[in-house]
Design goal:
The protein is an all-alpha fold. The protein folds into 2 domains: 107 residues, no CATH class; 41 residues, no CATH class. The protein is 68% helix and 0% strand. α1 packs antiparallel against α2 and α3 packs parallel to α4. Pfam families: DUF212 (PF02681).
């Protein structure tokens, strides 16, 4: 069994599960479907790659190629989670608002319009830097904890 993989995937699951109570604390809405959602605190992407890097550091050492690869790929994943994916999410908010804006503009002068998709685009795709940091800290703790638990 690949312990690093199990720890990383478990960290992703734990981070996703934590989104439910974190969302409740923030909004007072209990939404179990947050388990399957992207975005919000903590970043499961960051938790997964950080737990793997921490586990590799503990198992093989920080001077190994395995650790170097896990850190570089982890940084790329975290940058993407808070950079490109976040910008895509913010652009999606604007696109979804266009329908409402068009309705306001043409309220008195209706224009024939055939909607092609009834589902709005998903708006929460990426993470704020604090959400990425929260996921990275959670993942590091879980990776180190997983290392010590696997040694028993």
């Amino acid at each position: 069994m690949n312990k690093g993989l199990v720890i990383a995937l478990s960290s992703i699951g734990i981070a996703q599960a934590l989104k439910i109570p974190m969302h409740y604390i923030k909004t007072k809405e209990w939404k179990p479907d947050r388990f399957f959602a992207t975005g919000e605190m903590p970043s499961s992407h960051s938790a997964g790659v950080s737990s793997l890097a921490a586990y590799i550091a503990m198992e093989k050492g920080i001077s190994t190629m395995d650790f170097a690869l896990s850190v570089v790929f982890g940084l790329i994943v975290m940058y993407d989670a808070q950079g490109i994916r976040r910008q895509t999410g913010e652009l999606t908010l604007k696109v979804n608002d266009l329908d409402e804006l068009i309705d306001k503009i043409h309220k008195d002068d209706p224009v024939k319009y055939e909607e092609k998709s009834s589902d709005p685009l998903k708006e929460v795709l990426g993470h704020k830097p604090g959400e990425v940091l929260g996921g990275a800290l959670l993942g590091t703790i879980l990776g180190i904890t997983g290392y010590y638990m696997s040694k028993k």
